[in-house]
Amino acid sequence: MTIDTASRLRIAICTGGGDAPGLNAVIRAVVLSALNRGWECYGIRDGFNGILSPKSYPRGGVIPLTRDTVHGITPLGGTIIGTTNRGNPLRYPTLLPDGTVIERDRTDEIVNGLAVYGIDALISVGGDGSMEIASALTRKGVRVIGVPKTIDNDLDGTVATFGFDTAVAFATEAIDRLHTTAEAHQRVMVVEVMGRYAGWIALNAGVSGTAHAVLIPEIPYDIHKVAAKIKSREAEGRPYSVVVVAEGARPIEGSVSLIAPKEAGRAERLGGIGERVARELEALTGRETRVVVLGHLLRGGTPTTFDRLLALRFGAAAVRALEEGQSGVMVALDPPTVRYVPLEEATRRMKTVPLDSDTMLTARDLGISFGD
Ligand SMILES: Nc1ncnc2c1ncn2[C@@H]1O[C@H](COP(=O)(O)OP(=O)(O)OP(=O)(O)O)[C@@H](O)[C@H]1O
Ligand SMILES: O=P(O)(O)OC[C@H]1O[C@](O)(CO)[C@@H](O)[C@@H]1O
Ligand SMILES: [Mg+2]
Questions:
Q1: Which residue ranges does the chain devote to CATH 3.40.50.450?
Q2: Where does substrate bind (predicted)?
Q3: How open is the CA angle 311-317-322, to the nearest 5 degrees?
Q4: pTM, whole model, 2 decimals?
Q5: Beta-sheet pairing, 10-15 with 121-126
Q6: Disulfide: which of 61, 63, 151, 161 matches 54 by Cβ 3.0-4.6 Å?
Q7: Are strands 62-64 and 329-334 parallel, antiparallel or unpaired?
């Protein structure tokens, strides 16, 4: 969709979903690119909560972002305006007098809230959930540009999202460190990494960190096959192994490991699969086993150079898109350039690991077991 451009825009930015290294770099690029055009820039606190729950923000749910606000934030993890992965405005959990909880659409309140603040256009940074919300707001007449973010790399329509490279780099370093202790103690070390529905982090870090088995959501595993891999290493005089497990991995006959089931306005919380795999491998191989859960460590820290640059490029490209009069599109990496894809296209399907991809073939050629 292309809209007439206003010469001086008042824009807002929000960050939604789980945080990812690079969010602050996007914010800085958006703010500086906007200010350098003579525009004004505001930040909505904690996803859309700054508009939906203004009473929770005595110092303002929508705050001005200035050159000073974004000074020095490029290398910082987190997001200076906050984020949330609870309370999707499309399906907002609401308690009824009889105690039941229903989900209701609160996007009209966001449309009105943006109008009250005189916001001409919104830049929404987030994963699939945030892009779905952005797409709904576009249909309601809000001028929106999406910026893709997720450490899980499961967002379609872009070759890469920022945060993923940082998460993989950290996981690889952790796996490297576990090799030496695994070998010294002749143990099996199981490393659980994030990746709810897609195994990108487990696969890329597992291959780079030379793990011996990698279990991903895309391939339900047979624990006996993983145990056989560990035993064959033993037979070759290597009585230790490193196994990487994505939190969304599941056995062939079984389901994912849940910490908490899905609730209104909130996805299910996964966790515990590393523990389960370790227990079963110890029983099947007789080898002492330990588990390390990397969890939220993967979302923290300073973004890698790749992620910083990508985040800065995405932020600046989002502002250029507004200047060009675009709306309803997501900035996407299409090397060597960035392009704009319709939000509907970006949210149509989840990007999971293709089983015939080059990285999968590489892993198999290297002898890594997927438990299949
Ligand atoms: N701007 C927002 N305001 C409120 N809630 C949001 C916002 N953006 C996203 N959410 C909520 O967070 C959930 C996850 O968001 P999203 O898919 O954008 O992030 P993600 O990077 O994929 O991370 P996650 O693992 O949390 O899904 C959404 O389904 C929605 O419930
Ligand atoms: O613990 P939280 O913040 O709800 O988020 C956990 C989820 O976030 C993600 O890291 C995506 O950011 C998923 O892999 C994970 O399941
Ligand atoms: Mg998501």
A1: 10-162+303-335
A2: 150-152, 187, 194-196, 247, 290, 296-299
A3: 135
A4: 0.95
A5: parallel
A6: 61
A7: unpaired
